[in-house]
Amino acid sequence: MTSVTATILDGKATRDAIYDDLRTRVAALGDAGVRPGLGTVLVGADPGSAAYVRGKHRDCAKVGITSLRRDLPDDATQEQVAAAIDELNADPACHGYIVQLPLPRGLDTGALLERMDPSKDADGLHPVNLGRLVLGEQGPLPCTPRGIVELLRRYEVAIDGAEVVVVGRGVTVGRPLGLLLTRRSENATVTLCHTGTKDLAAQVRRADIVVAAAGRPSLITADMVKPGAAVLDVGITRTEQGLVGDVAPAAREVAGFVAPMPGGVGPMTRAMLLTNVVEAAERAVRSA
Ligand SMILES: Nc1nc(=O)c2c([nH]1)NC[C@@H]1CN(c3ccc(C(=O)N[C@@H](CCC(=O)O)C(=O)O)cc3)C=[N+]21
C-alpha cells in the first residue's frame, strides 16, 4: 500500500487566524461604543458540557468579548431555565447566546430553544434560523457546519462539484451541513448517511470529502477512504483512554487531507460561535 502524507486541516491555527481578525473587528465595535457579549446557559454538572462552556468563555477573553454565564443546577425546572433565557433575551449587553446541549432529562429542549430570541441565537439552531437556512435567507449559521466549510475553504479543498458523504443526521452537524454544502455558493453534491444506511463503505468510497459525525469510534476505516480524499473527524466519544473520534487512525494514511480530532473541527466550532456573536454586534451597531 502506498502511504500518502495527508495535509492536516489545522483547526487551531485556523482559529488563531480567525481570532486575529475578530480582535480587529471587536476594536472597531469598541470605537462605536459597543462591546460584544456572549451568553451561555448551562444546566447541570456534566463534566463534558462544563468543559465546553469553560472553553467558550476562555476564547471570549482572548478576543475581547464579554462573557455572560448562567449556570443552573441539575434539578433546575423548565421555568427556571426559561427565566434565564428571558433574561438574556432582554439584556442589551448580550448579543448572542447558547443553551448548552444536551439538557438534563425532563426539560423540554424544543420549547426552550424556541423561547430564544432568534436574533440572539449564536448557535443557529433556533427553528426560525434553521428555516432560514433551508430557505436560503440570511441568518446565523450553525457553528460546526460553518466551521467545516470555512476550514475546507482556507485549505483550498475543492467544494464546488465535490461528492461529499456526511455520516450522521444530527441537528447540530449532519443535517445543517447538508443544507450548507448544497447551496449554490458551495455547490457540492451531498449524500447524508446514518446508522440506517445499508452499505456505508460503498457510500464513503465514492466521496471526495467525508465528514464523520456519528459519534461511533472507528466507524470510518482505511479501506473505506478513497485515496486523496478529505476526511474530517467530528465524532467525539469519551472512553477510558480519553476522547476518540469516528475515524480509525489508519484511515488518515489514505486521505489527502485530514481534520483530526482533537485539533480540527472542534476549535473551528468555537471560532464560528464567536464570529456569530461579533456579527450580531455589528448588526446592532448598523441598525442603531
Ligand atoms: N448549544 C450547543 N452548541 C454547541 O456547539 C455544542 C453543544 N451545545 N453541546 C455540545 C457540542 C460539542 N461541541 C464542541 C465544541 C468544541 C469542541 C472542541 O473545541 N474540541 C477540541 C478538544 C477539546 C478541548 O480542547 O477543549 C478539539 O476538537 O480540538 C468540542 C465539542 C459543541 N457543542
From TrEMBL:
An annotated Gene Ontology molecular function: methenyltetrahydrofolate cyclohydrolase activity
Family per similarity comment: Belongs to the tetrahydrofolate dehydrogenase/cyclohydrolase family.
The protein's name in its UniProt record: Bifunctional protein FolD
Encoding gene (name): folD
Function: Catalyzes the oxidation of 5,10-methylenetetrahydrofolate to 5,10-methenyltetrahydrofolate and then the hydrolysis of 5,10-methenyltetrahydrofolate to 10-formyltetrahydrofolate.
SUPFAM superfamilies in UniProt: Aminoacid dehydrogenase-like, N-terminal domain (SSF53223), NAD(P)-binding Rossmann-fold domains (SSF51735)
CC terms in the record's Gene Ontology section: cytosol
Catalytic activity: (6R)-5,10-methylene-5,6,7,8-tetrahydrofolate + NADP(+) = (6R)-5,10-methenyltetrahydrofolate + NADPH; (6R)-5,10-methenyltetrahydrofolate + H2O = (6R)-10-formyltetrahydrofolate + H(+)
Binding positions (NADP(+)): 168-170, 236
Pathway(s) annotated for this protein in UniProt: One-carbon metabolism; tetrahydrofolate interconversion
Assembly description: Homodimer.
Lineage, top ranks: Bacteria, Bacillati, Actinomycetota, Actinomycetes, Pseudonocardiales
Domain Tetrahydrofolate dehydrogenase/cyclohydrolase catalytic: 9-123
InterPro entries: Aminoacid_DH-like_N_sf, NAD(P)-bd_dom_sf, THF_DH/CycHdrlase, THF_DH/CycHdrlase_cat_dom, THF_DH/CycHdrlase_NAD-bd_dom
Key words, A-Z: Amino-acid biosynthesis, Histidine biosynthesis, Hydrolase, Methionine biosynthesis, Multifunctional enzyme, NADP, One-carbon metabolism, Oxidoreductase, Purine biosynthesis
HAMAP family: THF_DHG_CYH (MF_01576)
One Pfam assignment: THF_DHG_CYH_C
GO biological process: L-histidine biosynthetic process; methionine biosynthetic process; purine nucleotide biosynthetic process; tetrahydrofolate interconversion
Domain Tetrahydrofolate dehydrogenase/cyclohydrolase NAD(P)-binding, first and last residues per copy: 142-284
EC numbers, comma separated: 1.5.1.5, 3.5.4.9
Source organism (scientific name): Actinoalloteichus hoggarensis
